[in-house]
Amino acid sequence: MSQVVLEASNIRKSFGGVRALKGVSLELQRGEVHAIAGENGAGKSTLIKILAGAVEADSGEIRVNGQVVENNSPEKARSLGVGIVYQQPALFPDLSVAENIALAGERKNPWGRVNWRARREHATTLLQRVGARIRPDALAGELTIAEQQLVEIAKALDATPQVLILDEPTAALGEQDAENLFRIVADLKAQQTTVVYITHRFEELFRLADRVTVLRDGNSIETRGMTGVTKNELIRLMVGRELTAVFPDRLPDLGKTLLEVRALSSRSQGVKSVSLTLRQGEILGMAGLIGSGRTQFAEALFGLAPVDSGEVLIEGKTVQIRSAADSIGLGIAYVPEDRRKHGLVLKMPIAANTTLSSLSKISSGGLLQFVEEHNAACDFSKRMSVKAPSVNCIAGNLSGGNQQKVALARWLMTEPKILILDEPTQGIDVGAKAEIYSLIAELAERGMGIIMISSDMTEIMGMSDRILVMAKGEVAGVVDRCEATPEMVLEFALGHPARVLEGQGV
Ligand SMILES: Nc1ncnc2c1ncn2[C@@H]1O[C@H](COP(=O)(O)OP(=O)(O)OP(=O)(O)O)[C@@H](O)[C@H]1O
Ligand SMILES: [Mg+2]
Questions:
Q1: Pocket residue to mutate for ligand 1, from 399, 408, 433, most atoms within 8 A of Cβ
Q2: Are residues 218 and 250 in the same domain?
């Protein structure tokens, strides 16, 4: 017998002029994994923030175990058994893990004294439950994103929730951490906890979810059982139309060698003797497991980390790169993985963010031309379908995926010679992905050389001209797209003996 634990009906929410939710309803059953799917800006995060009491709805009703929830707040939701882990971890970086966990739940003893030992032991138990090997005394700010996320989950589990909400929990996780998370979800489900799961990854939807509710444009479109739905049907529900080809048809026209890296090593980054070449108009896919050293290599190449040995040549000339400024001066741009942290000024409007790195393009006589800034930003926002009423909106108010798009636009606009993209479509919905792919293809067509780091095999196979696979800080193999198979890439990624196919010019 299924039993409804939480029911939200006709929830509406506007932020100023933006109608984020236009009457959304959702029903959660006990012990189910209920996915919420939809494009960037569809309203997923807003909905769950309302359920968790972090955002107040304009109207609508929430019932938990049949009882109407009045004056919802984070404390109230928590006491009713609704736990949440947000899209971005929000721990206090200067507090220890144990303190962060304690902040949410701990009851003080009457004298207001803290029992440090109990606090640490309690944290240890919770951390063990989520399979995290983290010291309770470690400062939260020193943890990796994956570890921070586990702490957030541990924190949420502390209140023994009946409903645990996870907003894109795997977006920043590697394979192993993601598997660990899937195990936690399965455990919770086995204990009859309801899990609400938001993701843009279809494999996860099909693997984990029992049912899915699709949101589109602030409306709940449909709730379906996962067994009775296909990926294409889901895409149609999410996008509202049939999606044609996701990957652009490219006929790469390769020019001269733009970049040559010879045996680049960086001890601090764990990068060992990486060599590669990149030609004009080429998209070099960089595959590998998380932690294989791809980002570390990119950071060293870009001048964000020290290089111990090796040589970098740009258009045949040896260059010295000691800082990001050197790289930018040489025509290299790097779009990092964690774009929220490195890519955007959240308090500034979309327009200013888009043009932040290309001010000379929109200035004349040292003066910023606001009309040009506006037009350039509009152009990019339109192409990448950034969902916002105008480019004057503050970037911090955009949905997670839309922030990603603006950060990407900022670097694309610099029109570098060499563009390094780290996980360019992470957190981006299926419709917008196609647009970003065609934009990347267009840049390559105009002669840019592109290194695309990606953990998404379909993306690697669909976009690359050549695929370089890293494992343990080294190049494990290089294959031409026409010869590559996902199995081959995976084999290299797992660190099987390097077997560079002939004629790949490394
Ligand atoms: N604090 C805010 N102020 C203004 N607008 C907001 C605010 N929070 C959300 N919005 C807007 O509400 C809409 C829904 O955003 P929401 O974050 O719920 O989307 P989402 O479905 O979670 O998208 P994503 O997949 O990109 O995370 C977006 O248009 C967003 O810009
Ligand atoms: Mg979101």
A1: 399
A2: no
Residues 6+ apart with CB under 8 A from 453: 286, 294, 295, 298, 337, 420, 421, 422, 423
Residue nearest to atom 18 of ligand 1 (CA): 43
Residues 192 and 321 in one domain: no
Range of the domain at 133: 4-239
Vertex 366: Cα angle to 361 and 368 (nearest 5): 60
Q: Could you identify the residue written with the tokens 């979810």?
A: 209
**Is the CB of 44 within 6 Å of ligand 1?**
yes
Please report, in tens digits, the pLDDT of each residue of the chain (506 residues total). 579 999 999 999 999 888 999 999 999 999 999 999 999 899 999 999 999 999 999 999 999 999 999 999 999 999 999 999 987 778 888 999 999 988 876 555 555 667 788 888 989 999 998 888 899 999 998 888 788 888 999 999 988 899 999 999 887 777 778 888 999 999 999 999 999 999 998 989 999 999 999 999 999 999 999 998 998 899 889 988 766 677 888 888 899 999 999 999 999 999 999 999 999 999 999 999 877 899 999 999 999 999 999 999 999 999 999 998 899 889 999 988 766 666 788 899 999 999 888 877 777 777 777 888 899 899 988 888 888 889 999 998 888 888 888 888 888 888 899 999 999 888 888 888 888 898 899 999 999 999 999 988 889 999 999 999 999 999 999 999 889 988 899 889 887 654 444 444 44
Check which CATH number belongs to the domain holding 441 and give it: 3.40.50.300
Residue in the structure block whose two tokens are 């994994």: 33
Q: Is the CB of 387 inside a 6 Å radius of any atom of ligand 1? A: yes
Q: Which of 195, 211, 239 is the last residue of a domain?
A: 239
Q: Which of 15, 347, 406 to mutate to test the pocket of ligand 1 (most atoms within 8 A of CB)?
A: 15
For tokens 């190449």, name the residue: 301
- Label each residue of 415-452 as H, E or C: CCCEEEEECCCCCCCHHHHHHHHHHHHHHHHCCCEEEE
Nearest CA to ligand 1 atom 8: 397
**Which amino acid type is present at position 309?**
S
User: Which residue's structure tokens are 């199995």?
Assistant: 487
Ligand nearest to the CA of 201: 1
223, 275: one domain: no
The domain total for the chain is 2
Kindly state if the Cβ of 42 falls inside 6 Å of ligand 1: yes
Our answer on whether the CB atom of 50 is closer than 6 Å to any ligand 1 atom is: no
Task: Measure 268 CA to ligand 2 centroid, in angstroms.
Answer: 34
- Ligand 1, atom 16, residue with closest C-alpha: 43
Cβ of 218 closer than 6 Å to ligand 1, yes or no, is no
CB 253 within 8 A of CB 281: yes
Q: Which atom of ligand 1 is nearest to the CA of 399?
A: 17
Mutate which of 86, 202, 390, 398 for ligand 1? The one with the most ligand atoms within 8 Å of its CB, which is 398
Q: Which of 239, 263, 289 is the last residue of a domain?
A: 239
